[in-house]
């Protein structure tokens, strides 16, 4: 069974401090994976702890499925919430083996419990390691056991707080894919917290960006990346070029000449141009530029470009064309630019 999660105006104020979470209204659809992304100290962990019931909200409400679990008049304690949580440091119980760790949260420890433990071991591919102790496992294996333990009691909602941060890059990608498959297979609604933008973009159905406890944008990875609502979000997610311009509706004049815009704007703007939106070629199309540096990454290359007026841009292209420092090239935009006005806002005006 899939459960939705909903917070309304969720707020948490720790004694004598600025609010850690401010007025967060968030909906997670049943079976969806939502990722919370934002700078350190922004309130991500606090949001998860409020949902799990480890903290009491100062204001607002939390609803899981049709049940209110926290508001001004109700507070359902964590053990009654059916919310699983996986922490960054795994937190396996060190003195009991894998099987016992997974069985820990299951209420019916008898026959159904045994079956469930087997199902979970199978799900995370740890059948052969059921009797091993946590210290005998690799980081990735411990992570999978932690996930199995959190999933074993069939939680309505699973919360994962930077669960992959102790894994190296290769293992991280593998465990991440395993976890996504497991969440889809068990139809579990999940909220992830990560610092890793690539992870957020590749794993999530939706991304919620939080700055200073405030929700700034909730949207699909595609929209967060291509239509960030303000320059703060644009700077935070992915690499972006910013070029000054003057907007006239759906066009702006700039160092690149007339540039098409996604949304109409007027007056002075900053044009956001993602590096892969810039086409770089040797044919005389668009604007003249010279290559001031080049970085080769195997499957793509990053190019530092300088326009005739001295403006600098970064482009990212495939490796089918060869470029080197000092080359004179021609560049053009392959898609409209997003324009941010002086208040930093990118929505239509
Ligand atoms: N128990 C607490 N008592 C007082 N202040 C707290 C407590 N827990 C968190 N805070 C404060 O709330 C704010 C948000 O913290 P939180 O741990 O939610 O951030 P975060 O987004 O998870 O950061 P990180 O990315 O570093 O994990 C911080 O300013 C932090 O100092
Ligand atoms: Mg945190």
Explained architecture:
With 349 residues, the chain is an alpha+beta fold. It is built from eight helices and 18 strands. It has two domains: 229 residues, P-loop containing nucleotide triphosphate hydrolases (Rossmann fold, 3-Layer(aba) Sandwich), CATH 3.40.50; 102 residues, Nucleic acid-binding proteins (OB fold (Dihydrolipoamide Acetyltransferase, E2P)). It is 22% helix and 36% strand. It has a six-stranded mixed beta sheet, sandwiched between helices. The chain has a five-stranded antiparallel beta sheet with strand order 13-17-14-15-16, with no helix packed on it. A four-stranded antiparallel beta sheet has the order 2-1-4-5, covered by helices on one side. Helix 3 crosses helix 4 and helix 4 runs parallel beside helix 5. The longest helix has 17 residues. The chain is globular and about 75 Å long. The model has no long low-confidence stretch (mean pLDDT 91). It binds adenosine-5'-triphosphate (ATP) and magnesium ion. The site of adenosine-5'-triphosphate has 11 residues, from helix 1.
Attribute tags:
five-stranded antiparallel β-sheet; Rossmann fold; binds adenosine-5'-triphosphate; 22% helix; six-stranded mixed β-sheet; 36% strand; OB fold (Dihydrolipoamide Acetyltransferase, E2P); 349 residues; globular; binds magnesium ion
Q: Which helices and strands occur, and which strands form pairs?
A:
Layout: E1 5-12, E2 21-28, E3 33-37, H1 44-52, E4 59-64, E5 67-70, E6 83-86, H2 98-103, H3 111-123, H4 139-151, E7 157-161, H5 169-185, E8 189-194, H6 197-203, E9 206-211, E10 214-219, H7 221-226, H8 231-236, E11 241-254, E12 257-273, E13 278-281, E14 287-296, E15 301-307, E16 312-317, E17 328-333, E18 338-340
Parallel strand pairs: 3-8, 3-9, 6-7, 7-8
Antiparallel strand pairs: 1-2, 1-4, 4-5, 9-10, 11-12, 12-18, 13-17, 14-15, 14-17, 15-16
Helix pairs in contact: 3-4, 4-5
């Amino acid at each position: 069974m899939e459960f939705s999660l909903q917070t309304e105006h969720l707020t948490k104020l720790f004694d004598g401090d600025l609010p850690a979470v401010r007025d967060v209204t968030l909906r997670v659809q049943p079976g969806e994976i939502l990722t919370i992304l934002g700078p350190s100290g922004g309130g991500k962990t606090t949001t998860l702890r409020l949902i799990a019931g480890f903290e009491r909200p100062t204001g607002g409400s939390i609803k899981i499925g049709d049940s209110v679990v926290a508001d001004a008049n109700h507070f359902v304690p964590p053990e009654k919430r059916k919310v699983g949580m996986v922490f960054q440091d795994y937190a396996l119980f060190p003195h009991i083996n894998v099987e016992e760790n997974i069985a820990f949260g299951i209420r019916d420890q008898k026959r159904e419990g045994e079956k469930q433990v087997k199902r979970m071991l199978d799900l995370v591919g740890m059948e052969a390691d059921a009797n091993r102790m946590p210290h005998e496992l690799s980081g990735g294996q411990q992570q999978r056991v932690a996930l199995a333990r959190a999933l074993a009691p069939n939680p309505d909602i699973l919360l994962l707080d930077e669960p992959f941060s102790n894994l190296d890059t290769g293992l991280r990608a593998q465990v991440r894919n395993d976890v996504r498959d497991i969440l889809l297979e068990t139809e579990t609604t999940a909220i992830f917290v990560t610092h890793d933008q690539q992870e957020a973009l590749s794993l999530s159905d939706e991304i919620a960006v939080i700055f200073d406890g405030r929700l700034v944008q909730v949207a699909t990875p595609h929209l967060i990346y291509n239509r960030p609502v303000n320059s703060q979000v644009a700077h935070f997610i992915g690499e972006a070029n910013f070029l000054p311009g003057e907007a006239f509706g759906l066009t702006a004049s700039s160092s690149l000449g007339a540039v098409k815009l996604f949304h109409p704007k007027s007056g002075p703007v900053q044009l956001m141009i993602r590096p892969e939106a810039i086409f770089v070629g040797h044919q005389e199309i668009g604007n003249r530029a010279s290559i001031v540096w080049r970085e080769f990454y195997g499957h793509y290359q990053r190019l530092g470009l300088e326009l005739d007026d001295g403006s600098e841009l970064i482009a990212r292209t495939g490796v089918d064309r060869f470029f080197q420092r000092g080359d004179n090239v021609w560049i053009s935009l392959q898609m409209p630019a997003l324009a941010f006005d002086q208040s930093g806002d990118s929505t239509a005006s």
